[in-house]
Amino acid sequence: MSSTPTATRSHSDFPDDGVVRAADGTPLKQRLAKALRREKLRSFLLIAPLLLFILLSFIAPIADMLFRSVENNIVQDTIPRTVEALKAWDPAGNELPNEPVFAALHDDLAIAVEKRVHTRLGSRLNYEKSGMSGLFRKTGRAIKRMDEGDYKAQFIDADEDWGDVETWRVIKRFSPAYTPGYFLNAVDAEQTSEGIRMKPANERVYLMLFNRTMVMSLMITVSCLILGFPVAYLLAHLSLKASNMLMILVLLPFWTSLLVRTSAWKVLLQQQGVINDFLVWTGIIDDANRLVMINNQTGTIIAMTHILLPFMILPLFSVMKTISPSYVRAAKSLGANDWTAFWKVYFPQTVPGIGAGAILVFILSIGYYITPELVGGTSGIFISNRIAYHISSSLNWGLAAALGAILLCLVLILFYVYDKIVGIDNVKLG
Amino acid sequence: MKLRTVLLASAASMAFTGQVVSEDLPPCDNCVDSMTLVSWGGAYQASQVKAYSEPYIAMTGVNVVWDESSNEAVAKLRAMNEAGNVTWDLVDVVAADAIRLCDEGLAAPIDHSAVLAEAPDGTPAAEDFGDMIVSECFIPQIVYSTTAAYRADVAEWNGKEPDSICAMFDLENFPGKRSLEKRPINNMEWALLCDGVAKEDVYDVLETDEGVEQALAKLGTIKDQVIWWSAAAEPPQLLADGEVVLASSYNGRFFSAIEEQGQPFKMLWDAQVFDLDGWIVPADLPEDRLNRVMHFLKFATDTQRLADQAKYISYGPARASSAPLVGKHAELGIDMAPHMPTDPANAKNTFLYNYEWWADNRDDLDAKFQAWLAQ
């Protein structure tokens, strides 16, 4: 038996230092690590397609979009000579830039007009100072007619704003390739020659909208909890047959298209709608005082509570299912009344489900925009509606990216706070 | 394959009996077999399908795909351009968007007389379209108007009927909710008109900060009575539901609600704002796609085709030579002329909309208006 070569070697060739070795002499620890490494590599290869997919289709576009919130190449790219010439100019003084700067601007704009990019630059600078968009459009039309020499006078002749030092300060201020401008805009502030300050009161909207989004999402979460808790309790305590039946009623609306459900709420809630008609018919309200329940905050809260309710009921239900009835029975047998048994014994065990449901509903509602757009009027819209507006209508993608980045940070902060208070390991989905 | 030939043949023969087919459609050299057209959906797109693309498909057999994204056309074209992958071949946009797309280099300039069909009497296309060519990239199709309509059966109005756009701001005589478009264009002008500004001074006043304040203040008097719309199909629906008593929208949408669906509204043509709608070709299309688009355009914007479109919707053709050919509604058989925004009875008091002014000032006013709206 001991005549096989390996066996002979293992007994004679390796030092007896107490290290456990495998048959070929490598330390067992090393072998184990190697095996584990191979195991890890194999599982990594298995998830690699998914990882690649997420990186390419999810992380990369988000990163690219977020990058837009600080990117500001357009000034440098469109009028490079002017940016260079402006380096020598002191924006703190009250003097206009000198002739070479105007000449550089003429050369830059002539090319930009040819390539039709000057209006984009105008739109970009208009975010920072109103009137810039019109200025670049007008000058673009005038640039072809300009003669050589004394460009300063010709520019001021084309639009008197070129004679305003503030115009030049804005161009110089937004020349660098990166800008905090979008983020400042997203919190209702602006960068001026005197430093950063809040915008005039009639132009502030975003902080108010962030605040409204948070408060209304909280209200939606609370109303989902109040409505969903008894339903989940019922589902968890009925007989299997009855609870399956009821479960269908919870799931059917969940599977129905979001747009269909939102439109249904429009039909129900509008002033000539089903609910108002019913109230008038029963005489609870009279015809002249029909309730206004849609195109405002009420509409948004009602419709979104309904749409997000399953996200509260399902985690609650799955947690309640696992709570053993013997605890409540034990509490009662020790003399607790129904309420004490529920509140002291049953309820604390449902907290992981409440946590899961609440965080799910809250984070979903912060990012909602279709439902508020359709039923929210102007007082019931969320910050996401403004993001959508900037992406598809005003084309201010930088501001949309900045608002999105702030929203993302808010969600992460809330998640962190939630983890500190409730503990994320206490969240249970089943 | 055989079935397809039969279908095409029958479609072509039907088209011939309807005298829709142009006599001499030259073959298209070096052209792709399919194209993507973008429009607004609804009754308007349906009229384009019937008047332009169906006869064209019957004659050439190309595959036409329709997209309904025109209300986001500027954003999507810019995104496609940045990504370097423009998938659209022809896009239907309003004049203001066409100017913007052209300014930004996202739409290709067009030599109208060289690429479009001339009028039957030989007038070059550029002359036939005339002032409707508001931008060198724009190929006009129709004239529509943004106007208002009201419910004819509101009990609280005690038999009074609005005869001016200022009824929009008159909550005393015409109580009830209104619906206005969720953007400054037209609303600001109407507000100033009803605040006593003379028609010809509107844009001068609007140019100043005080003018903007004045317009917003006037709109502020009805702000809590307004349901703001963003899709033109909403106001006729809101009127039909009795949710609002007075609303602005495009005249063709009201036409279809009143005449085709028999809703109890009436048109209020006062201070209607003419606007244009037409095609733009995305910039830098590959040659074979561009050839196909140009081939289609020449057919779809000729005198007869533009007149045909008016059989399906009450928008006026943008070619002068098409106007005399406008006939009856294709299904209802009613005369279309009295429903056109350009009909003398409707155009008694028209407000002239200034494209160039809006092109220059839109960024500013959009921001102010949206902030005002959100507060």
Using the alpha-carbon principal axes, give the shape of chain B: globular
Shape field of chain A: flat
CATH superfamily of the largest domain in chain A: MetI-like
How many whole angstroms does the radius of gyration of chain A measure? 33 Å
Return residue spans of chain A where pLDDT drops below 50 for at least 5 consecutive residues: 1-8
Count up the domains of chain B: 2
The description of the largest β-sheet of chain B is:
10 strands, mixed
Write the layout of secondary structure elements.
The complex is a heterodimer of chains A (430) and B (375).
Chain A: H1 5-12, H2 28-67, H3 73-78, H4 80-86, H5 99-115, H6 118-126, H7 132-142, H8 151-158, H9 165-173, H10 181-186, E1 189-192, E2 195-198, H11 206-237, H12 240-255, H13 258-269, H14 274-282, H15 297-321, H16 325-333, H17 338-366, H18 370-375, H19 383-392, H20 397-421
Antiparallel strand pairs in A: 1-2
Chain B: H1 2-17, E1 34-38, H2 42-60, E2 63-67, H3 73-83, E3 90-94, H4 95-103, H5 112-115, H6 125-129, E4 139-151, E5 178-181, H7 187-194, H8 202-206, H9 209-220, E6 226-229, H10 234-241, E7 246-250, H11 251-260, E8 265-280, H12 287-300, H13 303-309, E9 316-317, E10 350-351, H14 355-374
Helix pairs in contact in B: 1-2, 2-13, 4-14, 7-9
Summarize the structure in words.
The complex is a heterodimer of chains A (430) and B (375). Chain A has 430 residues and is mostly helical. Chain A has 20 helices and 2 strands. Chain A has helices at 5-12, 28-67, 73-78, 80-86, 99-115, 118-126, 132-142, 151-158, 165-173, 181-186, 206-237, 240-255, 258-269, 274-282, 297-321, 325-333, 338-366, 370-375, 383-392, 397-421, and strands at residues 189-192, 195-198. Chain A has a two-stranded antiparallel ribbon. Mean pLDDT of chain A is 90; it is low at 1-8. Chain B is α/β, with parallel strands linked by helices and 375 residues long. Chain B folds into 2 domains: 2-143 and 276-339, 3-Layer(aba) Sandwich (D-Maltodextrin-Binding Protein, domain 2), CATH 3.40.190.10; 146-273 and 350-356, Periplasmic binding protein-like II (D-Maltodextrin-Binding Protein, domain 2, 3-Layer(aba) Sandwich). In chain B, 39% of the residues lie in helices and 16% in strands. Chain B contains 14 helices and 10 strands. Chain B has helices at residues 2-17, 42-60, 73-83, 95-103, 112-115, 125-129, 187-194, 202-206, 209-220, 234-241, 251-260, 287-300, 303-309, 355-374; strands at residues 34-38, 63-67, 90-94, 139-151, 178-181, 226-229, 246-250, 265-280, 316-317, 350-351. In chain B, helix 2 links the parallel strand 1 and strand 2. In chain B, helix 2 runs antiparallel to helix 13. In chain B, 47% of the residues are buried. The interface between A and B is medium-sized, with 36 and 30 residues. Chain B: Keywords: Periplasm, Signal.
